[in-house]
Fold this sequence. Notes:
globular, alpha/beta, Rossmann fold, six-stranded parallel β-sheet, 2 domains
Amino acid sequence: MNVLLVGNYENDLHVSMNRYAAFMEKGLVQAGHHVKTVRPQDCFGQLRPSYRGLGKWLGYIDKFGIFPLVFRSALRWADVVHIIDQGNSVYTKYLKSFPHLVTCHDLFAIRSALGEIPQNPTRWTGRKLQQMILKGLREAQHIVCVSDATRKDLLRVAGIPECRVSRVYNSLASGFSLMDQREAENRVRKLFIDPSQPFLLHVGGNQWYKNRLGVLRIFSSFRKLSQDRHFTLVMVGKPWTSEMRRFVAEQGMRDVAVELTGVADEDLRALYSTATLMLFPSLQEGFGWPIIEAQACGCPVLTSDRSPMNEVGGNAAVYCDPEEPESAAVIVKRALENLPSLRESGLVNASRFDSSVTINSYLLLYEKLCANTSGRCYVS
């Protein structure tokens, strides 16, 4: 089968989506299929490489002016098209009679544009773009959601018939597994973290739903509860916001809260393999990759008792209310008394998200779509 994957515009810096495209391409090739990945190139965008300001508008020319010409030419080769990010569903209008599907990772941007998420306001241009994306989803032949929570959001927001929406869990990236202890400790030392001292870990960006200030509040409350002052907090991701820096200073945590940016995958794996516990109290997620990444590396996880976090973490994580830092700190303290059991159950849970299951699920859908291009159900 010839599978054409539609990836993301490079200047938009969608790291997780670029990883997802690479995962799909590798998995499909290993399964014996022919794969090409096309994405909008930065023609005008190279004049100002950015996803903001003038760079954003130059990117629109690349994405909506130039790329459709390349895309339609590439269709001559393909048997099926897979748009790997719902943000690119605007291209479904070129696929009216062509077998295709879209993977939907979350509905946050669309819901924000609709006013459902007031803490993430959207400007006029953003609302117009999300209207185009939602229209593209409604016109798609089939949509795959990465969790039941995302599928529920899509069915409600888009009004798409259930027969056109499936759920296929994301899979664990092949590199994430428990690292040899000596290698992990050496890598962590190079990040100026002492692996002989216990530390809590957080992995995430500065999106509103990541609740990074909440992570700091949980850690602050934990320090007040715990008699052991040797614990530090290591936060991997984007640079701290000014609000986060102010909180760290006010709580006297400058020496015990560590900010790490630009961490390579193998170094992240080392952190997972040496951390005492990972804090992942997100307010919302489309899936929650760090949960299974940590578990696969033997790191116990505390996350939010909300879907899809509890959907992904299963019975192997400990859960909290992400908006109640004091009670979450109590749960952290209690979890530290049960680490061996959490490590073992986490390893078992992470094994549910095997890459072959994901790839085979998509291949089955590709075959059904190719065999049934005229029999699909449409939104009237």
